[in-house]
Specification:
The complex is a heterodimer. By secondary structure, chain A is an all-alpha fold. Chain A has 13 helices and no strands. Chain A folds into 2 domains: 233 residues, no CATH class; 76 residues, no CATH class. In chain A, helix 1 crosses helix 12, helix 2 crosses helix 10 and helix 3 runs antiparallel to helix 10. The longest helix of chain A is centred in the first third of the chain and has 29 residues. Chain A starts with a helix and ends in a 31-residue tail after the last helix. Chain B is built from 10 helices and 10 strands. In chain B, a hairpin with a 2-residue loop joins strand 4 and strand 5. Classes of the chains: A mainly alpha, B alpha/beta. At the A-B interface, helix 8 and helix 9 of A face helix 2, helix 3, helix 4 and helix 5 of B.
């Protein structure tokens, strides 16, 4: 296998994983207005769960790594477990953080939850092996077909893209349904939406749990490829990478999410990782974060609605309704 | 104080005092019915301050009740308590005979209570059409389960909502705005969209919080006509308004509040001549 095949396949895998994360965050933030600054926690929950249900029973303190829920689940239960973990953690966190309070407070609570979770997982070694994290995670589906994730990255890339495409189609359909429209109403004016009969708390929790499940799934896919997971992989800054992606691409527009994910986490963050080192050690890493910060600021300044803004849903007056005709404008806004 | 002892009761009476039952006929609607909304001794407190202090009101079908008073009188807090947006500290509220005192806003809305807000509350990044169909009584989007498990039923509801939305757009002559975002509308159009959105729910009671704010003078008359037309459908309307000419033209009864209490009530002509109203509000 050539280096280039491995390199491009890996970028595609990261694209698929980050696209799943972008879809989930766009549903939560772009459609429902939930400022989920703790998003990365749900991806981490899925990654840890997928790891422990693949690694087998923990060897305890005598082993080089210890963890809870150790088992060896067959495909596809590993990914189901990852999605369920993301959903359950979302439900628990959502039940106390999504009560009727202002959005900025909710965002602060979720950011704090993210910081607390990182500290707890790092400090509590029996949970998920502390700051050393978990290694040796394999790919259950690959074992069935006789390949490993890193040994056959093209297959894994196709697998990741297939899952991302299915989730994309499902979430797109949901977002365009009357339920998605209710989410946008809640985003635009909570009190008015509530006064129009929408149960805001329930809608917010639904979108939080669905987004959490997708985030968990993305974590599961990632850990089965890279084979390891530790607190170093899910700092709170990772949440802002996904936020930047949907800001740059276009909040509330799924095509924008694809563009944003391609630009921010893949081209800005992952692509330079495989390039030859330039300058002193750590320069590229620092420049990556500078670029992300700049992208966010430039976008807010010059293109606040993103490269592909949310599309206007225009209607045409149906035949039979009296009065002058109403036709959509050219292309909408 | 120009307080009426019979008919639609609005009073600051003690909790033990029975509220009179509405039995009158709306002046231009010809509608006869009992009360649709009854609030008894409603109290709203912020810290130790009673913003609304034992205010009672009863609204009949087809009746328009105006609530006026100086800034800080507690009018909007009272409306918020009726709609469920503001937590009440005491008192009872019933809608169509059902106690809604402890219900959340969306539960009250589903029972037939619709409202507008002091600052316009259009869904800014949704078109006028989307504003309407999202607010409809049969909006399937209120339930994820319904959308996922019953797509055919959802499509039927969408068609019904669409028909209703076009009907209301025609009635208010707002078809030309159908594809505009809420944020692209003028102040008056936003007010109209809010009211149209409420009508999508076929409510029993409509609460309007300063509906004429931001409305151009030439549109005020049209809005008054529209509200009169709505009342003929049998809705009870409670309107908080500072524009006294609007109140005079529109309201069957007027309640005057000051310092959280009702200081006068009666016809417009009666309350404006009341000495306490003159002192607290009109002087």
């Amino acid at each position: 296998m050539s280096v280039w095949v491995f390199y491009i396949s890996t970028l595609v895998i990261y694209f698929g994983v980050d696209l799943l994360a972008g879809i989930a965050l766009n549903l939560q933030f772009g459609y429902a207005g939930v400022v989920n600054f703790g998003f990365i926690v749900f991806q981490a929950a899925g990654a840890y769960m997928a790891a422990v249900v693949v690694l087998g029973p923990s060897g305890g303190v005598a082993s080089f790594q210890q963890y809870i829920f150790g088992s060896r689940l067959p495909f596809p239960l590993d990914l189901v477990a990852a999605a369920v973990a993301g959903a359950v953690v979302s439900l628990v966190i959502g039940l106390f953080s999504l009560r009727r309070m202002r959005r900025d407070y909710q965002a602060a609570v979720l950011l704090i939850v993210s910081l607390i979770a990182l500290q707890v997982v790092s400090a509590d070694v029996p949970l998920f092996n502390g700051s050393n994290g978990l290694t040796g995670v394999t790919w259950p589906l690959g074992q069935i077909v006789g390949v490993t994730a890193t040994g056959a990255p093209v297959i894994y890339a196709a697998w990741t893209l297939a899952i991302a495409a299915i989730v994309f189609a499902a979430v797109y359909w949901l977002s365009k349904s009357p339920w998605g429209r209710s989410l946008r109403a809640m985003r635009d004016h909570e009190d008015a939406a509530s006064a129009m009969g929408l149960n805001i708390t329930s809608l917010r929790l639904q979108v939080f749990v669905i987004g959490g499940a997708i985030a968990g799934l993305s974590g599961g896919l990632l850990v089965e490829y890279i084979g390891a997971w530790s607190p170093g992989a899910w700092g709170y800054a990772e949440t802002f990478v996904i936020f930047t992606a949907i800001f740059v691409g276009g909040v509330g527009n799924y095509r924008g999410v694809i563009v944003g994910v391609l630009l921010v986490p893949v081209i800005f963050l992952e692509l330079p990782r495989f390039l030859p080192a330039v300058g002193y050690p750590g320069l590229i890493d620092s420049l990556q974060w500078v670029t992300i910060g700049l992208a966010w600021m430039l976008c807010l300044l010059f293109r606040p609605r993103g490269i592909l803004p949310e599309k206007r849903m225009e209607v045409t007056k149906p035949a039979g309704v009296p009065g002058p005709a109403v036709v959509p404008s050219e292309g909408g806004a | 104080m120009a307080e009426r002892e019979e008919g639609f009761g609005i009073s600051t009476a003690s909790p033990s005092t029975a509220l009179p039952v509405a039995t009158e006929v709306a002046s231009d609607g010809g509608y006869t019915a009992g009360p649709v909304l009854v609030a008894t001794d409603v109290v709203v407190s912020y810290g130790g301050v009673h913003a609304v202090d034992r205010v009672s009101i009863s609204v009949a079908r087809g009746e328009i009740v105006g609530v006026i008073g100086p800034n800080g009188a507690g009018k909007s807090s009272f409306l918020g308590a009726l709609g469920g947006q503001v937590k009440r500290s005491g008192g009872d509220i019933s809608l169509l005979g059902k106690d809604i005192s402890s219900m959340l806003p969306h539960q009250r809305a589903r029972l037939g209570l619709a409202r507008t807000f002091q600052t316009t509350s259009e869904f800014a990044k949704m078109t006028v059409f989307e504003n309407l169909i999202t607010s409809g009584e049969g909006n399937a989007g209120a339930s994820l389960k319904e959308v996922v498990l019953h797509p055919r039923k959802t499509a039927q509801r969408e068609r019904a909502m669409t028909d209703r939305a076009w009907e209301i757009l025609q009635r208010f002559e707002m078809e030309h705005t159908v594809n505009l975002y809420g944020r692209e509308l003028s102040g008056g159009q936003r007010r109209l969209v809010e009211i149209m959105r409420c009508l999508m729910r076929d409510p029993a009671v409509l609460l309007l919080d300063e509906p004429m704010v931001g409305v151009a003078p030439h549109l005020t008359g049209k809005l008054i006509e529209d509200l009169r037309a709505i009342r003929r459908d049998g809705l009870g309307i409670v309107i908080v308004e500072h524009a006294l000419e609007v109140v005079r033209q529109l309201c069957d009864r007027v309640v005057v509040m000051a310092f959280g209490k009702v200081i006068a009530q009666g016809s417009f002509e009666e309350v404006v001549q009341d000495a306490s109203v003159q002192a607290a509000y009109l002087s």
